[in-house]
Amino acid sequence: MPATIVVDAFWGDSGKGKVTAHLARRLDAALAVRAGVGTNAGASFTLDDGTLVKQRQLPTAWVNPRTKLAVGPGVLVNPSILADELERFGVADRTMIDPRCGIITADDLAEDVADPFLRGVVGTSGSGVGPARARYVNRKAQQVRELTEFAGLCGDVAVEANTRSAAGEVVLIESAQGTQLSLSLSFEYPCTTVKNCTSAAAIDDVGLSWRQVGDVVLVVKALPTRVGEGPLPHEMTHEEAVRRGIAEYGVNTGRPRRKAARIDAELLRYATMVNGPTQIALTFTDHIDPAVKGVRDPGGLTAEVRRVIDEVEQITDCPVTMIDTGPLLNDMIDL
Known about the structure:
Blueprint: E1 3-8, H1 16-27, E2 31-34, E3 43-46, E4 52-55, E5 68-71, H2 79-89, E6 95-97, H3 106-114, H4 116-122, H5 129-137, H6 157-166, E7 171-174, H7 199-206, E8 213-221, E9 225-226, E10 235-236, H8 238-244, E11 258-260, H9 265-275, E12 279-283, H10 303-316, E13 320-324, E14 332-334
Parallel strand pairs: 1-7, 1-8, 2-5, 2-7, 5-6, 8-12, 12-13
Antiparallel strand pairs: 3-4, 9-11, 10-11, 13-14
Helix pairs in contact: 3-5
């Protein structure tokens, strides 16, 4: 079975991690690979026992015990965050880190938060990825292969992903952040991340052949959000989000997420054009209608949610195949 790429239509925080975890269990994925910049983007979801899970380095597919995990060679690694997640999730025996991954150092973290331009104009998360990426591009960065503590985890992720996909195994590629934050595709520069966040970028982060791509899942957040600086069309006030009980806060920084009152059709068309999705995952639908919170059957979807489904399908000319209805991992509907 060709690989499936999970990518965000807007500015991130859309539930890509939850969608990937859901697919890993539903499809019993053989391999899940983390793409993206690095640990500047976090994923969170709540297990059915109420445990809130937050992570920044490994694929969320660890929830399926039969899925092997990997971090692609294009992803920056923070050694302390990686070590924490390996221990917290107990997955060291099924994790592969590409030895070519660049390292985020303490100096990168310090430089990121000290830079007034990054802090005040760009709105950096302070995770060190900008300085680390710059060193990597200038060929001055350390790589994972130089760290003895991860020697037993190192392997060629490009070979692993292409080989398994070509053999018909289920491979998931989990992207990070969102299309509208792409360094060279966004019209909002410099309020972007440090490289592109599209399906093509995810392929590159992993070293996956385009011939091995079968599906692209575009994750569309029902009420898009943005953390940091830059424009957000149809933005509601934070006070309004609090009043409606739909306020959100960043996984990494705890900063309030700026929230839009609706999807911007023009930006969604652009995201569709550059990502080429084969299916759509519509997330946070309980934020447009609280009546669907926790619903796990299509029959429980309300007229308002169905209206948004129809709108998204008309804009993207692509079927909505997954509906996220609440914070729990199992609050998902497959259509």
